[in-house]
Amino acid sequence: MVSPTPQVSSSSEVSPPKYQIVELDPDTKTKIKLYLFKNVQNVETIRDNIIQGVWECSAIKPRYIVDAFQVAVAANKAVLDEKRDAMVTRSVYSEILYNLSPTKNISQSLMKFGISKDTNILFCFLVTEERDTSTEIIPKIEGEMCSMKELFNFTSFEETKHVYKLNHMKEKCMERLLDLVVTKIATKSFVTH
Amino acid sequence: MDESEPQLLKQGAEARVYICKYLGRDTVIKERFQKKYRHPDLDVEIVKERIRNEARSILRCKFANIRTPALYLVDFERRKIYMEYLATNITVKDFIAKHGTANEHFEKIAKTIGETLRKLHDNNIVHGDLTTSNMLLIPKLQAGAEQIDPAWLAKGHVELVMIDFGLSYTDASIEDKGVDLYVLERALLSTHSNYEDLFAIILKAYVVSNPKGNANETIKRFEEVRARGRKRTMVG
User: Fold this and answer.
1) Minimal Cα–Cα distance from B2 to chain A, Å?
2) Is A79 touching B (CB cutoff 8 A)?
3) Statement to judge: residues B157 and B97 lie in one domain
4) Last residue of one domain, picked from the residues B39, B61, B84
5) DSSP A53
6) From which residue to which does any coiled coil extend (chain A) (predicted)?
7) How many CB pairs below 8 A link A and B?
8) In chain B, what residues touch A193 (CB-CB under 8 Å)?
9) Among A100, B160, B174, B183, which one is least packed by beta carbons within 10 Å?
């Protein structure tokens, strides 16, 4: 298991989990587990392992992620489409990256929302009652684990707006941005822009 | 009560609306059930088309800065749209019934409706079922405020949300827009017959809200539709 980061307060207190869990569609019996890391040193190893399918997780660029819910919406569709044999990409983990992206170009989507030389990484694991790959993978990440509450520090409002082509947005409101982003993700398969 | 168990909110002729927790959020699920009198293949196609139209219109509204529920999942297989549940809301219908038109915010709200409809039509979206039940007032968070002011409605801190795009479509013609306005007028006449000026205020705001665009054609067509409608009721 992940060793909890030391707390300033008394040792008797259990440190709160730094990851975040969101339950997906009840039929899938799956949850997502999200971990946020900064200053990751072994990005290349992580990338290689994921591309070769050795590590089962998505490594997401946090820059365009407004909220954990955004990943939940993308992952939920990926898991449902996997069940229905309706995926666009080869694995459910690349499907999450593809679903996050507003474009239908697969390689562009993976490049934009996946990691290349990024040292800040948001990891998404699909967890079921029988299986939780995060327990093996997380200890192998050489970086600083951050609380998911810090996600907003890694998000760029302007760049996210730009990536999702939301130039009509006037106010700088994260709530509105999330609304638009998830709606775009949910309608991507049948709406052309 | 189990939170994940869907609760029936509304049953219509086309769809059932439930609320439940989904992806950790309060969610409205709109399910379009099968119509037994239709051929099953045709039924599937019709439902698909309607779901697609509804989702498309909702997205298009967002691009036009019209508030609509956020979409979480569009599931053609289950015939369901999963969307944001706006917990704190009052329909325009209930607002008028409760507070009447003497309310200090009434005119502002009526104007907002007119402006919103104009934005809708300027973006070639036709709602198809404009009634005061399909317009929600929700609290508008004031700048710097963290939480909803309990007196939001009394203070007029409201935002208008358009819902139920089940009969809507995009790429609307002038005729469609004229009919859209006519549908609203008829709905107002039957639901709010004692507030005659309501539609007039809405229509005026519709006309003046975008001086650049040209609403004259739509208004002209609306008047034609209205005349036709009147003739029909006179004959029938």
Assistant:
1) 13
2) no
3) yes
4) B84
5) T
6) none
7) 62
8) none
9) B174
